[in-house]
Fold:
Amino acid sequence: MLSRKDLFKDTLRKAAHAWKRIIELRLSEEEAHMLRSYVDQPAFTDLHWGMFIPAIKGQGTEEQHEKWLPMAYKMQIIGCYAQTELGHGSNVQGLETTATFDPQTDEFVIHSPTLTSSKWWPGGLGKVSTHAVVYARLITGAQDHGVHGFIVQLRSLDDHSPLPGITVGDIGMKFGSGAYNSMDNGLLRFDHVRIPRNQMLMRVSQVTREGKFVQSDVPRQLVYGTMVYVRQTIVSDASCALARAVCIATRYSAVRRQFGSQNGGPETQVIDYKTQQSRLFPLLASAYAFRFVGEWLKWLYADVTQRLQANDFSTLPEAHACTAGLKSMTTSVTADAIEECRKLCGGHGYLSNSGLPELFAVYIPTCTYEGDNVVLLLQVARFLMKTVSQLGSGKKPVGTTAYMGRAEHLMQCRCEVERAEDWLKPSVILEAFEARAFRMSIACAKNLSKFSNPEDGFSELSPDLLEAAIAHCQLIVVSKYIEKLQQDIPGKGVKRQLEILCNVYALHLLHKHLGDFVTTSCITPKQGALANQQLRLLYSQVRPNAITLVDAFNYTDHYLGSVLGCYNGNVYQRLYEEAWKDPLNDTVVPDGYLEYVWPILKQHIRTARL
Amino acid sequence: MLSRKDLFKDTLRKAAHAWKRIIELRLSEEEAHMLRSYVDQPAFTDLHWGMFIPAIKGQGTEEQHEKWLPMAYKMQIIGCYAQTELGHGSNVQGLETTATFDPQTDEFVIHSPTLTSSKWWPGGLGKVSTHAVVYARLITGAQDHGVHGFIVQLRSLDDHSPLPGITVGDIGMKFGSGAYNSMDNGLLRFDHVRIPRNQMLMRVSQVTREGKFVQSDVPRQLVYGTMVYVRQTIVSDASCALARAVCIATRYSAVRRQFGSQNGGPETQVIDYKTQQSRLFPLLASAYAFRFVGEWLKWLYADVTQRLQANDFSTLPEAHACTAGLKSMTTSVTADAIEECRKLCGGHGYLSNSGLPELFAVYIPTCTYEGDNVVLLLQVARFLMKTVSQLGSGKKPVGTTAYMGRAEHLMQCRCEVERAEDWLKPSVILEAFEARAFRMSIACAKNLSKFSNPEDGFSELSPDLLEAAIAHCQLIVVSKYIEKLQQDIPGKGVKRQLEILCNVYALHLLHKHLGDFVTTSCITPKQGALANQQLRLLYSQVRPNAITLVDAFNYTDHYLGSVLGCYNGNVYQRLYEEAWKDPLNDTVVPDGYLEYVWPILKQHIRTARL
Structure:
């Protein structure tokens, strides 16, 4: 309920307080990260620690590390990551800001040649950052060497005023009332700003004193390693956000009763309606599924890192495609699921204190940043087409595409389900998902081959390619969930519940994408109907443990921030108490009554001064 | 960017100003309604004119009309519609507020016996209304006669303070930063508040001086007539809201360029990507489709009204089911579509000045009010099951269910599509949608018959029943669009464009619900693939006229309220100018810098006073 200015000031206060505690408690970097994440509000510190420092670490030389990192670690400088521009987001290679080398002074001249080259969106840029890693086209002589990173000071360390040649400000209000409005996403223009040559991040490429552009032998693939890392954390975060929304909707569905009173008894709990279950329980299952695939991605990142250190790049393209796809799929599903959970809370879900509107508003940018979700899926599709094209060549597909090595089997296999309970077998589910994903990829490849220009074909068929990529990503999540269940899982009966959820996850996807499965002849319409029948039985099995399954996420009421989702279920009392806290209730007669309501009621409106 | 209090005061100001103009210009009721709707912000006047007055008109006696309507028309009193309670929304019969007749004083005692009986949500109640139509359980003697409406004064006409026994206030912040926060959705509790007997709305039922409950011979079905009217306006509004979002996304997609630059030329317009087209053009087609079905609903309402006047209730159940279904389907699709349009605008869609976040926030309650969308679809499903069960009885299905009369044909027909262009024939599309809807209903009926208790069956199969209801509603929209195209349509080439959109609308639904069509054997997988192929060709045909098709909605830039959707396409300049208007940009150094940022930078955080 704060105005933009007050909200922003409050965010600065929280960030300062968090930093004070981090220092006082001598927290490790990881502990500090957790403390900040529990402040649970976007702030400039996210970019300083999450983007500015990693960019210098990843792209800077040893020398640059020594100069900049100690200051950054102590926050003597505060940095942001100035990549996207007004005119360019996804297409990084199209950025327009220029960094022209001036051999006379041994400097780069950073400049914004057009309106659309204005830096736009970087968090922390608008009002706080003293420095930025700025991405700009490197120009030496008359030659354009593409986009590189440069460390640029933006504001005076004395009085925080922008340095000469720099225009900087906030880009304005965003979705929601809180959400990212606590962040100073900024705009930035350069008017021939000069920086020393040694502020270009020079780990991979260098410009010499003479203005010669040189590339070192550091493998460029290292960049992919970082991407795998960042996207893996996004998948974990998706699971957390989804779990939070599902926890609220599930608890409230157990408290809320509507219709179905018999003989004056209580009405039916909303969670007992099959319509509610069929929308809610697949989301609950997805929260667990994303958690497990997130855990597996952590392993994948460790594996990739180890291989990189041994100069083994063989699994990198597959790992990159896999994390791109999972980032896209899990965040898209989570964004929609948060809104679906809000709807599942009925009218009261529309109240801010349900926690769901702001959870939605703060979550949805995840679908755009670190790779637009559609662009990422197209990358996955491209990788799948490449994998398919190499199938005959003896090059064996690896990792999450290994199933494509069993091409003949997957093209011929027929689902053997005869009774609904046959759908409970993990091997049956896995084969259906593998066959569907594979056949969709093959169908795309076949249609692509009809085009004389493959790029035209890729563009024309891109909607189908997206669907094939999604089928592949869903298969990954299903298969990793099944693998998880093959391990020991502590706690009596826990494994059984997780098995039920795994089946819910797979079968709800099968029902949702029934057209895919049936038209590729992976299953028959009859088998589809049996799957749907089994799904309904599974919902009944989830029901008794639904509350426990969300309690297991272990969110405190404070962190959950939802009146509807509170642990003790005392929803109505809390709704009533919260209402009175609205500023509109400060006075019985509202501000504006005398000027604007009284003249209407008393028929004085013609003479009222409005 | 206003605080809640300032936003609310501003809304009062606009409402007063609108009322002043309405009086000065002597506007008719319809013109006044239009003026208010163009203020384009939820306000207490919506409820006064849209619910309070209609409730008195519809449920009051002549005598009550004479007493209350003149005051209400002059706004000497301002009213709201106090139906929903903290504990009850959809289940109106479960309301807990009581109105107990006291024969001693000839009064009703209005009382809130429980916390959950608190009135909750009524717009205009929180801070403004002087009166309310309150729905409460009528109790005479010891008998409960169910829920009835009562006119209750809430606030003093002298100083606006709540009358004795009345607790009233605002329920707090809602989704978004503007949206419904301009409305004083309220809470209300009664502590034995007494009103004269003649303030019960007595058109349909009466309580005599002796406390006897009497029902007049006014047909109860009249209520349905009003519901048909209200829901018809909601469908029209859905089309408007959807058109607004689509207009923004389409225009911006033509301005935005990303990737695909060849030889240094401009990059590709985003609207030229098939992935963008496959998401955007079906929404454009839906906006037109909903407009035409909305126009048809206007006719339906006129027809129903005429029949009611002649005491012909025969078409009422079908008309009621049809409008319930269309309200549900069009509002659900529109809510999702607004968010999809936001995503189609990429990162910049997340900015408030794109217009899309607030359009979403202000639209989504439509899915809940005037009947929760899931509850409504279940009503449709119930009607469909009843219609199916009567098929053998000789009772012919009427109106939008008339197709069910051709049961034998619809169960046997096979789609004759052999080439992609066969899918352009309206008769082919219509038959496929009819057969699919009918077979899904029949399948549900068959599965229902396996349950010994039909209510258990209905409850267990409700997810399938929802899908059958949706298939039926989609058929209605498709068929009304096709009917529209059989009429004369002025303007050279306009009809051709509308035909293309009609095919896009139908074929994108067919692709989305491919599982339905194939598993019911309405079409073969091959025919599904041909439909998808035809759909891609249609997108290419929509493309050249896409901008014209959204310009045709004829929204002014002012009404559209979107930087991204402005008519002249000067998007980047406007984004840049708008940014500077944010309050955070009032000062170069932000408020809070000295207290919270400077101490961090200067390593004084340990001693800072936070």
Q: What stands out?
A: The first helix of chain B runs from residue 4 to 24. Chain B touches chain A through 137 residues (CB under 8 Å). The mean pLDDT of chain B is 96. The longest strand of chain B covers residues 143-153.
